[in-house]
Design goal:
The structure is a homotetramer of 353-residue chains. Chain A is α/β, with parallel strands linked by helices. Chain A has 2 domains: 6-124 and 287-303 and 339-350, Rossmann fold; 128-278, Dihydrodipicolinate Reductase, domain 2 (2-Layer Sandwich), CATH 3.30.360. Chain A is built from 10 helices and 15 strands. A 9-stranded mixed beta sheet of chain A has the order 14-13-12-11-7-10-9-8-15. A 6-stranded parallel beta sheet of chain A has the order 3-2-1-4-5-6, with helices on both faces. In chain A, a hairpin with a 4-residue loop joins β13 (253-264) and β14. The radius of gyration of chain A is 21 Å and the shape is globular.
Chain lengths: 353, 353, 353, 353
């Protein structure tokens, strides 16, 4: 069905929805045909900019619209599962904004629904489609950095405080999805320390740490309370080191030929290598565009989702573990709960899929 | 005795000792009269630059030298206690390089010895004498930043790996001494996650977190494995935020008039303040010079040590707690061990001081 | 007539025209009613995004459109005079993209036409509406910087090479309009050195210098051949100094409390002041939006153009002088040609305006 | 005579002299044996740090000192010629601080004296020994940058105002010596615009431009009146571009793979290349050390001065031309005065050297 234009319905026209609509408007092979939102003002704004798009306050209108092949869900996290299940039940392909769900059970249910419906499920981990992130992944894949020692990320700025979830769920999906994508492994343990300053029980500052089977650790400072915007991630490898700074207008990825050459405690000698710094050219295509094109490719059967249901669930699992750690004063908690089996697999087997 | 020139003996002429010698050479009211080191080559270098200074391979020569009023100890940590005790026993004033000792028991013993000898004990927490650090402290003192929410510090670079202690003990004293000085309170708990990559059991990367009675938390990333040198500390307060970046040639302290104005969950409203940025002028005097002058003032009875035995012990206590946390997989541990009494106070009482 | 919505026609939908259309779409009191361009593809793009706008390949259709009260001209420089004269003849208000014209004679003619038609003429010197530029002007107005010694500007990047005029006419209007606005005076002399590397006779690198009656000099480096984009302007005053860097995401204007305190050749003494650095908050409104709102205000009689015909002519006069200097090997040339009188004034008198 | 230690006498212990003394103290094969200065306080300071060095207020003592093989002249410019001539007459090798002299006639005389005495003459163009400058020269030599289009340099800071010469003579020697070294050619013309703000007739801000036979132009902004220190030089070549920023703690040289691919006026097409950015590792040896070692090598006959009398004279010739241009309102003046012959060559021929 790759020659047909995919009709897309977007649910949620608040903060991020309009970006999806705009990106889809420029995506070959896709067309936004309908937008649903509870707020008529938002729908009016959409209509003004895209007069040909049908708008509705009732998302079920969109679900039953035969011109809608795929649904993009850009609504509050707590609604993701219900809306995704409805969409799969109606035979639609589904794109869910990050994070996939507010807990692993919901994420599993969404994955299950997509498997039963045999429809594409993709999660909006936009950074996985960021050419700079891809560049670093290439460096890792090709062994340029050697074995990864650790990853350290700073993702901080002033606001925007959310009311229903903390900064771990707001900014965390970015770093977790990037780090899991880069390392290609799931963590063993998760640790999360944080504090709620402005609103009770809604942490606005957290420090998240993950330990991996390879020995690598990853650390992220996430904050809504910071004087200036930082988006800086360092990958320290045994051979080279890379810095990815998303706030820079140019040279967003730098590779440092730096490392430890030799340490000899016998001779009390330490020698370091400090060579050239290289900044590879990064293509300037907008990540959201690349993500939407990939969604179309997946629906058309030309690709498998880079950020599919499994990837989305892994991120939720880290965040859920992070919450357990936060609630127990920052204790180190296992990524997988002892004795828990991956329910989706069991269920899939039981239904004979 | 303030008119007399203080004769100083320096033990240890390795990495840091020569800096102390140079700084003392320019300190009014002080004069380096003797230097001890086991390595004759180092002594030869000292002699070449300072021909008038007596050198010896036996530190006891220096301890019994009547021209020596004060001793500066710049030797490996494990020797601090023994040398300090000898110096106090010989009636000398003592300056000990940071950290004061490798454990609280040793630190306490040194403090006790200074009290018994009634001689000045000062610890080389040079950053406490850094005009930029003092500027931030002034902002905190005068309420410019409001209540402190959190402090986040990055102190990372490539090397220099130590052989006998980890990066927590090497770089940690700087951040811990700065943070305790700024906040004016001792932590309740300490948490430390780290990894040893290059040498077994010698962590080269750690993330240290401290929780304080006021509700503030402080976090520091310390690393010998980083592509570029970072010395950046952020203080987020309820009224303003400050950044202290020690790598910059100018504008090392910036005060951001940024904050949260109002968050109303009822009206789903959030408003932020983003005002001017101000960078106060920082005097350019070298911190080490100021530290040495302060040491002389303390010996002369004109001041009390800003980084005395108590302050030095508090830093060691944090590091020791950090080690306990590290060894238990990053668990949150109390700053003070339950039931432990401050031995120095007991002892002081018992000796009737 | 201030309550009526101004109908605007835009001529030229190439590089800059679409930006004007978009900005006008969000300007209260204005509405784009028609767009003219020779290229039907560009018109199709406009129609797709703004279906209600009439499009035409013949600009005369737009000129005779009664719904069109004002015309925005975003066409090649050589067409500015003819189109502006037609528009004024049709009784329209006119906005002309910078530079106003390719020579002073044409600029004068346009100003004359606007005066005869008694219609608003405004030139697209967008930077004059930039809040950062306004902030620096405020510093100058209120004497914060003292007397201006000199202004130095770097406006360089790679490309975009123009085919019909050089970098002086492409990037120069920005700096010249900013500097004349700040200093509030016209230069006495102009000097311009340059070289054409990529295309014969089309200078891609020039250094422009202007001397002012106050003694101030202004210098600008303009280039299409540079490794990275620079937009940095320094204003050195007798009391303070300011830097305006338009490439920064924040702190785009910095005021340095730096200067010379005293220089005494008798005592061979020099003393400098190096105080605080202050970065005032800059409103984030888009300059183009502010410019379009100002155009509407001017048409409605609520304001006089900040970048009117006179201001636009002054910029052209500097560029024309710069060309004379360039063609004579960088000689210093007078801003006003000896004996030349301002023709528009003469003409205005003769027509009894 | 390469095995013998060179005895060096230093004349002038003001601002720069002590740096030379310190550098020589660490130079193998050289030893400072005597220092002359009119000011006894300065001599006392030298004695304190270097007790073995003989000091004198009469430079003739040093000239007649048989232990002195070479003389370093770090005195005011106006004294260079007389002192150098005396030193050569006494059979010494001579190092003269930059600029070699205050006019070409004096520079020529010094060169002549060195030739007659057959002794080494070296000029203190320290930047020519800077590893970053050498790195850029390597890029040029090996064609990495292609043909040089232009060089643009910013060398500005606040102070230090000189009393007897302007900023062109103070900061200009650095850029001129670097640029002539890089380009390997002498300019055809020189142009210089400037202004004296703080002291009458002593320009504190100048813009210097040079045109070269190859078509390259070079431009330098030199200023004692600037809010922050800039040391940034851009080299734009036909193949790549390089930036040398001496204020950075790392990555002081960056090579940008950027350029114009094709410009076709027929097809109205322009295409640019924006590839990787590379920052080669720069050795961290101090330039002054390298310079002093080179001076020793030259005296020992192991090398020819990289910054010898000819190179020093070329710099003076540019500065002298710059002064002519400044005094005539920034007119373009020839580098070589019409009809002037290089006197030193004539003289050399006449003496049969």
């Amino acid at each position: 069905m790759s020659d047909r234009t995919i009709g897309v319905g977007v649910i949620g026209a608040g903060y991020w929805g309009p970006n999806i609509i705009r990106a889809l408007a420029e995506t070959p092979g896709a067309q936004v045909v309908a937008v649903a939102d509870l707020d008529p003002k938002r729908l009016a704004t959409v209509s003004k900019r895209f007069p040909a798009v049908r708008t509705t306050q009732d998302h079920r209108t969109l679900m039953s619209d035969h011109a809608v092949d795929a649904v993009c869900i850009a609504t509050p996290i707590s609604t993701h599962r219900r809306l995704a299940e409805e969409a799969f039940a109606a035979g639609k392909h589904v794109f869910v904004e990050k994070p996939l769900a507010g807990n692993v059970a919901d994420a599993d249910a969404i994955v299950r629904a997509s498997e039963i419906a045999a429809r594409t499920l993709m999660v909006g981990h936009t950074f996985v489609y960021n050419p700079a992130v891809e560049t670093v992944r290439g460096l890792l894949r090709h062994g340029v950095l050697g074995e990864v020692f650790y990853v350290d990320s700073q993702r901080v700025n002033l606001g925007i405080h959310q009311f229903d979830f903390n900064v771990l769920w707001d900014l965390g999906p970015h770093d977790v999805s990037i780090i899991l994508y880069w390392l290609g492994e799931e963590p063993i343990w998760v640790q999360c320390v944080g504090q709620a300053y402005v609103q009770p029980n809604i942490e606005d500052v957290v420090f998240l740490t993950m330990g991996f089977p390879s020995g690598a650790i990853a650390h992220a400072h996430l904050s809504w309370l910071a004087p200036s915007k930082l988006r800086r991630t360092v990958v320290v490898g045994s051979r080279k080191m890379a810095v990815y700074d998303d706030t820079l207008p140019a040279e967003r990825v730098k590779v440092y030929d730096r490392g430890v050459e030799a340490i000899s405690i016998e001779e009390l000698r330490r020698s370091y290598r400090a060579g050239d710094v290289h900044s590879p050219r990064i293509p300037e295509t907008e990540p959201l565009q690349l993500e939407m094109r990939h969604f179309v490719d997946c629906i058309n059967g030309d690709a498998l989702p880079l950020s599919g249901g499994e990837a989305g669930t892994r991120v939720v699992r880290v965040l859920e573990a992070g919450m357990r750690s936060l609630r127990t004063g920052g204790a180190r908690v296992p990524y997988r709960i002892e004795g828990a089996r991956r329910p989706e697999l069991v269920t899939l087997a039981s239904i004979g899929a």
